[in-house]
């Protein structure tokens, strides 16, 4: 196993205000991990080259002009429970029928009402699954592996200079990494991690303001990676704008969870893109 830092020192060293949403989530995860069973050793073989999550994004981006990672979350720290009780199976079915390339499924229980069991239950839909959590320990990678996730989210704002070690630990468990940045100062950590999928979160997780990230500087820094725009996409047109602007994929959560017709929402994302991709 790779040498990973002590999760408590990682959480102490984020530099985020104690009251910030992200810091509160991390502290909560630390408490949950303290109660967890001993970390299981890797079972899957190590990952060499691209995995099924990346391949699905590349395939759908080539075929449709863009790929969507459709997120299942019932709550968030900033909004509280905005989609509590939304049936998992019906929502994921709508995502698949609407043309999603992959799922992002919240695993964090306290603030997002997520569960690793949701990832296990999503297996029947046959789309690759992102373990959407706040990874600070090997135990969470073990949880992601055991619930069948294909990929994990690694947040550079949290992991900083340890991002590469976490990406390697994930690979050793057969897990792909979506490495999430918030600004370009974080690029070197993702490069060191040899990130094949790079997400840029438009939501500043310290201030919660939404920015408008551009793909061009990321493309320069990661010529061969799949670029994913995350957060704050409220309409199908917003998603199309990002996909036309150089991102191969978008990650959409709240808007899909609030939509009365998530399948129709996704179909509208692809409607014009498909013609443009021809
Ligand atoms: O959204 C929050 O309140 C939050 C708080 C602390 C850490 C992360 C948080 N959100 C995670 C995300 O950024 C989103 O789940 C994801 O990118 C999807 O965004 P959206 O489409 O805006 O739901």
What does this structure look like?
Pathway: Amino-acid biosynthesis; L-tryptophan biosynthesis; L-tryptophan from chorismate: step 4/5. InterPro entries: Aldolase_TIM, Indole-3-glycerol_P_synth, Indole-3-glycerol_P_synth_dom, Indole-3-GlycerolPSynthase_CS, RibuloseP-bd_barrel. This is indole-3-glycerol-phosphate synthase. It catalyses: 1-(2-carboxyphenylamino)-1-deoxy-D-ribulose 5-phosphate + H(+) = (1S,2R)-1-C-(indol-3-yl)glycerol 3-phosphate + CO2 + H2O. This protein is an alpha/beta fold and 278 residues long. The chain has a single domain (53-277), classed as TIM Barrel (Alpha-Beta Barrel). The protein is built from 14 helices and eight strands. Helix 12 runs parallel beside helix 14. The longest helix is centred in the C-terminal third of the chain and has 16 residues, at 262-277. The protein is globular, with a radius of gyration of 17 Å. The termini are far apart. The model has no long low-confidence stretch (mean pLDDT 95). Bound molecules: ligand LARABZUK.
């Amino acid at each position: 196993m790779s040498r990973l830092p002590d999760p408590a020192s990682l959480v102490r060293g984020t530099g985020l205000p104690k009251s910030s949403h992200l810091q509160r989530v991390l502290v909560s995860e630390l408490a949950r991990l303290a109660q967890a069973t001993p970390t299981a050793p890797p079972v899957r073989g190590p990952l060499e080259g691209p995995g099924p999550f990346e391949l699905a994004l590349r395939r759908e981006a080539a075929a449709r002009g863009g790929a969507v990672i459709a997120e299942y979350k019932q709550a968030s720290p900033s909004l509280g429970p905005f989609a509590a009780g939304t049936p998992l199976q019906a929502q994921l079915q709508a995502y698949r029928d609407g043309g999603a390339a992959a799922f992002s499924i919240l695993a964090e229980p306290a603030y997002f009402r997520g569960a690793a069991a949701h990832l296990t239950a999503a297996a029947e839909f046959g789309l690759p699954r992102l373990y959407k959590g706040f990874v600070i320990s090997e135990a969470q990678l073990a949880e992601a592996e055991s619930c069948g996730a294909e990929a994990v989210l690694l947040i550079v704002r949290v992991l900083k200079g340890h991002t590469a070690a976490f990406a390697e630990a994930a690979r050793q468990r057969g897990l792909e990494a979506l490495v999430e940045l918030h600004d370009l100062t974080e690029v070197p950590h993702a490069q060191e991690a040899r990130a094949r999928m790079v997400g840029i979160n438009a939501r500043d997780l310290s201030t919660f303001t939404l920015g408008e990230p551009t793909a061009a500087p990321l493309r320069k820094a990661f010529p061969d990676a799949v670029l994913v725009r995350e957060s704050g996409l409220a309409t199908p047109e917003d998603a199309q704008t990002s996909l036309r602007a150089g991102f191969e994929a978008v990650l959409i959560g709240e808007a899909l969870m609030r939509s009365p017709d998530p399948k129709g929402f996704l179909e509208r994302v692809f409607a014009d893109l498909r013609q443009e991709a021809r």
